[in-house]
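Protocol step 4 of 5: obtain the predicted structure for the target chain.
Materials: sequence only (see below). No template structures provided, no constraints applied. The aim of this step is simply to have a reference model before the mutagenesis design in step 5. Sequence pasted as it appears in the construct record:
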Amino acid sequence: MKQNISIVWFRQDVRIADHEPLYRACQSGKPVLAVYIFDERQHGKTSFGFAKTGSFRAKFLRESVQELQENLEKLGISLYVAQGTSEEIFSALSERFHVSDLYYYRLYGTEEMEMEHQIKAVLQETVIHSYDGYTLYHPNDLPISLDQLPNTFTAFRKMIEKTGKIRPPFPIPAYKAKKVILNSCVPSYSDLRMTEPMMDDRAVFHFLGGEGKAKKRLAYYLFESKRILQYKQTRNGLLGEDFSSKLSPWLANGSLSPRTVYEQLKRFESEHQSNESTYWLYFELLWRDYFCFVLMRYKEQFFQRSGLRRLPLKKAVYDERKLNAWIEGETGFPFIDANMRELKSTGFMSNRGRQNAASFFVKNLGLDWRIGAEWFESCLIDYDPASNYGNWLYIAGVGNDPRPFRYFNIVKQAKQYDPNGQYMKHWLPELAALPVAFVHEPEQLSASEREFYGVTDYPQPIVSLSQSVEQYKATDMKARKRR
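Step 4 output (structure tokens):
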């Protein structure tokens, strides 16, 4: 006779604190088995041929799942870690056990929603308990329906700050039922068909996965260093551990919940101080929520080239030379190249870098924004569908941006945020000897000066900034008029 069990299915929620599905399952009094699946589709290829989960995020994820397994074991719950397709794994589990109940957090990406549909088809006799928990504000607590969601972030922010409410986090549950024993281990890198990444010595922060590391970083940034008090002034920094919270990777895979961050932020303000910077961390959590709600509203449209605006765009030109130059950090624009090399070498890039790299990709190189978004998806440790694609839609001008044409002047941005070229020289050692006067625009050097400063191997600019952006702008405006 099959053992009667409940399953808690973990996905982008690899934690035991503030986890409603786990809490509810433990409250039921039934034997609980936790399940995490390295679904082969999430470790396959993107539509443009990149690895869907790059090695840095895979490393961070493996560490996070390993700690989740250890934490659940302390509660008396086994975490069964499997590899394959989710429907195949659940089908095998249903043959071995009588799965009476399935508990999980809903996700909002089209692929994730399709996966849920397939699991339900496999577990037709199972009672499904699904919950919302990826956002700070619960979707059911919004003062409007999703189809009434404001088209700009500012309108959303003003509405939610006036009428919204934030639910308290769930406590870590106590588990008293019989343990369901099913041994497993986290897949190796070879199992995932990749090699373990080697962190570049120039990385200024080493991200380690797991709920404990997330809580430690949160406590450090708020209570130990109190760097939160300068967050608004430093958040656009490029070098260093503490110019920003660095919480995004743990938020992305759910080692840390936004409600836990908010709860600790409010505690800090109560015990110490509140200012513009403490508000700004909450402000960034709101941006994360907003993109998630936009994804929930627009679904497949969120990932289409025409975006939310359904503009009749001219067919994008695929230029492999430009694409590879951007990926490898060989465009001839030091600010772009430094950021792209950091991304490829560490799996991380600052928010300021992401905005500039994306703007350059679309507005100067004239490439399909979805290709750039997929490269970020592959590389970023803190990738999540809503924030990544939402930001690319925004930069490409087919998302939630009130401006008809948004463009980042790369050289101006570099001079503003890296005035002495410290960041660029850090990631572009071939420019180390350049004086500040030339580091932002090395193309101004004569041939003899390039030889004198040892920059003969650094490429000339791949495009003209002014001409390329004007060409793109003219094309973009025609598309908007045709609409």
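Step 4 remarks: Residues 276-298 form the longest helix (23 residues). Strands lie at 3-10, 32-39, 79-84, 97-105, 127-131.
Proceed to step 5.
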